[in-house]
From TrEMBL:
Protein name listed in UniProt: Protein N-acetyltransferase, RimJ/RimL family
Domain N-acetyltransferase: 3-150
GO MF annotation list: acyltransferase activity, transferring groups other than amino-acyl groups
Keyword Nucleotidyltransferase belongs to the record: no
Key word Transferase present: yes
UniProt keyword annotations, A-Z: Transferase
Length: 155
């Protein structure tokens, strides 16, 4: 099973809105409130225009299976991801992380570390980061997962 990433475009705004308001996604998010459509579209268009944000849709064949976003902070890429409810529990989270790591190695040479921030109650996301080889650090409000990158494909 392999997936590929495609950078999000205006055509993806409704799909991302659907995903962001899935019940389990809201429960796992640090802000668990439902997101209004206007708020989502404002955030989306700001994010896709920002040089410090990249949003990708993951595909298995032609089927969108989830999203993964990075916010660039100096030499770090902070991850946010979610998997479509129909594809959860099948290893797609690990594949999204692997695909993102390859994308970062190829096109974002300044990124030396990927960071994920996960709620204590989000056990499935913790497993995903652990299976992907991330180092764990417990904080008061969450668990941080780190992975240092090397072996850049564009060197």
């Amino acid at each position: 099973m392999t997936i590929y990433l495609k950078e999000a475009t205006v055509e993806d705004v409704d799909l991302l809105f659907e995903w962001v308001n899935e019940k389990l996604v809201r429960k796992s998010a640090f802000n668990s409130n439902t997101i209004a459509y206007g708020e989502h579209t404002e955030w989306f268009f700001h994010s896709v225009e920002s040089p410090n944000c990249r949003i990708f849709i993951g595909y298995d064949d032609d089927n969108p299976i989830g999203q993964i976003r990075i916010d660039l902070e100096d030499d770090k890429a902070v991850i946010d991801y979610s998997v479509d409810s129909h594809y959860r529990g099948k290893g797609y989270g690990v594949l999204l992380l692997e695909a993102l790591e390859n994308e970062v190695r190829y096109s974002l040479k300044q990124v030396k570390q990927i960071v994920g921030k996960v709620k204590f109650s989000n056990i499935s996301s913790q497993r995903t980061f652990n299976r992907s080889g991330y180092i764990t650090e417990n904080k008061n409000e969450c668990i941080l997962f780190y992975k240092k990158l090397g072996g850049y494909l564009n060197e």
